[in-house]
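Quick start: what a row looks like.
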Amino acid sequence: MIFDTHDNLRHYAAHFRDFDPVPLCDWLAEGAQAEPGVNVEFFGDKVFAKVLAYDTVTSEAVRWESHREYIDLQYGLSGGETIEWAATQELMSEGVYDTENDVQFYSPSPAKIFLPLHGNTFTFLFPSDGHKPMISDGKNVSIRKAVVKIHRTLMIR
């Protein structure tokens, strides 16, 4: 997991391979101007983004999840939420891995870290990062964010 502020996103360009992240960084810095729910492709099905806008909920209303094929870059645009984090090795799988949607769900478990995602922060969540997004931060009732899916072969940890 990487957590940082918008000003530092370009510093992570060296972590990419076989993909130039500059157009993606520019799009995010310009506020990810896309309608919520519309996919924006940057490198075919290997790097694509979707802007999401929703009301946040309680922790109990969200399931732990992780992804095996894609790294999540969750980039706060406005509003805010809390993302709970725990290592997948510490979570108990719930059901089978959904290959079509690249998601594994987990049984309820306490969070190890609480990430405050808002209009100035982002996080990279790797396959080993269990996470619960959408949680109220106690200040904002909603969030607008971009979720970028980056195929795991395009990023060096």
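That is the whole record. The chain has one helix and eleven strands. Residues 22-29 form the longest helix (8 residues).
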